[in-house]
Design a protein that fits this description.
The chain is mainly α and 262 residues long. The protein has ten helices and four strands, in the order H-H-H-H-H-E-H-E-E-E-H-H-H-H.
Length: 262
């Protein structure tokens, strides 16, 4: 299934480029913007499937294949590929991409990297292994079944006090850990706080090529982010002004993450 998913992912990206060629020539700008859109589509589809517990490799591949078939410009004429590319723009793109790569290298697993990165990595691993986003804490569930009286500060249930706000009714009963909430403390049912696309794209990378690919995706997304900003900026400003602004942004922030944007 991993090979099938990889083929479908490549086909979806190729379909986007073909559709772009029905409007204008394909260059670095087209590749970058199509790649950003492609990642967004993969993340949205995987997140929706994970919400119903069906984010397995075969199901994801089937859903993306349908999108690729619907997006394919079957009867539209495409514009020929350019015979040459502007060397100045290519050099600027390479320099900016190298800077983003250096800031993100080496890739890390991030499982113990704190609130956001750690929860994203753990969610990606869980989705890749189970196809869903809802988990059950068996220890907490067992404690709830054994507890007859109100929870006190010295027992396990006391670590997860119930919240009484009306808006939380049937949504969140208690905080669990950063990025996660207890939807049902008595059942030990744990749900993510937000439906970010980044953990979903990491899960797809995991399904295709394992844990290393999920970690490397963060580096790839960092490079893609600055290239996408360059592609968009080129439509607003001349190359020199755009490059100067983007280099300043990149090296001042020192942390460019496509996952944060998603």
């Amino acid at each position: 299934m991993a090979a099938l998913l990889a083929v479908v992912l490549a086909a979806l990206f190729g379909t986007q480029l073909l559709r772009w060629r029905t409007r204008e020539r394909v260059g670095l700008e087209a590749i970058v913007l199509c790649a950003a859109t492609w990642l967004g589509i993969v993340g949205i589809v995987t997140t929706l499937l994970a919400c119903v517990g069906r984010a397995q490799a075969g199901v994801i591949a089937g859903a993306l294949a349908v999108i690729a078939a619907a997006w394919m410009p079957w009867r539209r004429r495409t514009i020929p590929l350019p015979t040459s590319a502007g060397w100045r723009e290519a050099i600027v793109a390479v320099v900016i991409a190298a800077g983003a790569f250096a800031l993100r290298w080496p890739p890390h697993e991030h499982a113990l990297a704190g609130r956001d990165q750690g929860s994203y990595a753990l969610r990606a691993e869980f989705t890749a292994q189970t196809g869903g986003i809802v988990s059950i804490d068996p220890v907490l569930r067992a404690a709830a079944l054994e507890q007859d009286d109100h929870a006190g500060p010295q027992d396990l249930l006391g670590l997860y006090p119930l919240r009484t706000e009306l808006w939380r009714e049937d949504l969140y009963e208690a905080s669990y850990r950063p990025g996660w909430y207890l939807a049902d403390r008595e059942a030990g049912r744990v749900v993510p706080q937000f439906l970010h696309l980044h953990p979903s794209t990491m899960a797809v990378a995991w399904l295709v090529a394992g844990r290393t690919a999920a970690s490397a995706l963060v580096v790839i997304e960092g490079v893609l982010t600055v290239l996408a900003l360059l592609a968009i900026g080129r439509r607003l400003w001349p190359l020199r002004e755009c490059a100067a602004w983007l280099v300043s942004f990149e090296f001042c922030s020192r942390s460019v993450s496509f996952g944060d944007i998603l």
